[in-house]
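Quick one - inputs below.
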Amino acid sequence: MVLPLVYAIYESVTGIQRSGAFGQGGSSPVFVGLDNYITALGASAFVASLGRVLLFAVVQVPVMIILATALALLLDAASAWGVRFFRSAYFLPYGVPGVIASILWGFLYTPGLSPLVNFGSALGLNLDFLGGGSILWSIANIVTWQYAGYNMLVIVAQLKSIDADLFEAASIDGANAWQVITRIKLPLIRPAIVLTTVFTIIGTIQLFAEPLVLKPLSSAITSSFTPNLSAYNEAFANNNYNLAAAESVLLALVACAFSFGFLKLVTRGGSPS
Amino acid sequence: MTTTERAYTGKKGKNQSSKQPSTVQKPRKIQRSPGWRILVTAALAVAAVYFLFPVYWLTIAATKSTSSLFGSSGLALDNPQLLTNLVNVVTYNGGIFGRWALNSVLYSGVGAVVATICSLAAGYCLAKFTFRGREVWFNIILAGVMIPGTALALPLFLLMSQVGLVNTYWSVLLPSLVSPFGVYLGRIYAQAAVPDSLLEASRLDGAGEFRIFFTLVLRLMMPAAVTIFLFQFIGIWNNFFLPLVMLSDQSLYPITLGLVQWQSVSDRHPELYQLAIGGAFLSVIPIMIAIVSLQRFWKAGLTEGSVKG
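Output:
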């Protein structure tokens, strides 16, 4: 009885230790004064970076989740050839580390190197993936490319767990494919969609590797393009660890607020899982 | 009767052989017209092109010399010299790439194994033992899932520099040993897959808790173990912020950090373009093979909450 308990406490304590580390980051600026938070929130660049990732999340999260759900439903409909192949193909990018995905897409965005840009100019389009207006969405594309397949797999797994009797009953009752999707599948995969949405929100808010890797390629990416990038630069370029820690804490708070907020929003209707 | 039906039976047969023991198979698909089928397949194929295109480009680019990388179309082969390129990658700078690869394997392998065992033990305890503050611990761990990993990296760096562990293997390894998500999954799975009656029976037979966990519970929780291991492995393998913050010694770098370093100086050293591409190719291919071949384990674990009613 004792040993697994010790394990549990050990695990919980290490879990705590992480939040302890997070508390340490939070508490040391408190002794320096709350000034760091005021400085962080007073710096227009940092606030702008928060706004930027929120805008990013508002657009990218729904796009990603809708794409993942659509792919999952199409695969599950199983009226296509090569379902196994497609499923693997979509999931494949998940194995590509974010930075390597960014290096890859970075090449695909670079004029002169990219077949996409060349193809665009052959069609008379001037594709500028790295400019100020488009860079955020170019990054969104990298993130979507990387994680849509993973989210799809979570949803597919939930679809597979739906009791087959339901489909039989539905077809006896004369339900068409669209009704099966909207009346049976979508309500029953809600927990999976909620789960993937929360993880996507958390993921997008901590955007870091993609802009860091693309920074040398695009002048539109500043050193405080995202909150994480800003914190990193405060810590290692300006040696202002306290401000960086304050920014990290703020980011964690925003992420928690949004994921809990979203959970609260969806659990009002019915409890997930 | 129809091709559709045959396809289903064929698919079921395959599933059965790959997934032992197989669950009860039921006919669950609704028949569709061939036109619909072509439409769905076409939509899926378009998506597949999107997901596979960069991988295709990487594979082609990895075979090119630095000059033809810029001088030729990115979509077609041009004097392929894959082997020369790969040899360049692994021999550059005294074989540093191999060192990075080993580091990545070390961080991911050790981190994932330890994290899996700890998560299972903790999850099992949280599911099967009642103790004071159980729900509080569980909620703390859930909050741990919600806190973005990169927001913790800087505070962790400050902590590590206080105990003098910055720029060592430990600085990356220690934070990787914890997996709040693993504990969460472990608890859900233990609730569903470990029957109380079995635990009681073993206790009556005189087995100690330690023995019960290692001989019985671990075996029952194996599917969850595989999933947690895979998630943690990929998570550490793909992690970038933590090693970036912690490590300054190149020989401790994992692959991701090393490749970004090559890429970031490639505007001054053009030969590094090819090295970064070749290195990306080398590091991506084994992981991709592993992901595809282990796919059924991902699937097995992802809906642990809803299996086994």
